[in-house]
Design goal:
By secondary structure, the protein is of the alpha+beta class. It has two domains: 33 residues; 31 residues. The protein contains one helix and four strands. Strands 1-2 form a two-stranded antiparallel sheet. Strands 3-4 form a two-stranded antiparallel ribbon.
Amino acid sequence: MITIELSKAVFLYISFSVVGILILWIFFDGRNRLPSFSEDKFCVWQCNICTHTYIDSVNRDISKCPLCSSLNERKEGGNRDGSKSGTG
């Protein structure tokens, strides 16, 4: 039977736990990184008819919804997603 002091056993338990958590943290942090898209190339739109949210890679004032094929117009006032602004 292996004899070990209590202080050494606690030290080893804490050390292995910290190293295990660090390895899991590095693994899951690297896996959850998402690609970043530049706002210059893509524009997020929301359809006024079916409320489907999609990305249009061509930056125009009118976009066609890929789900229901309706045309959506870009709203004035800095609203970039094509959705209605205000309470109306």
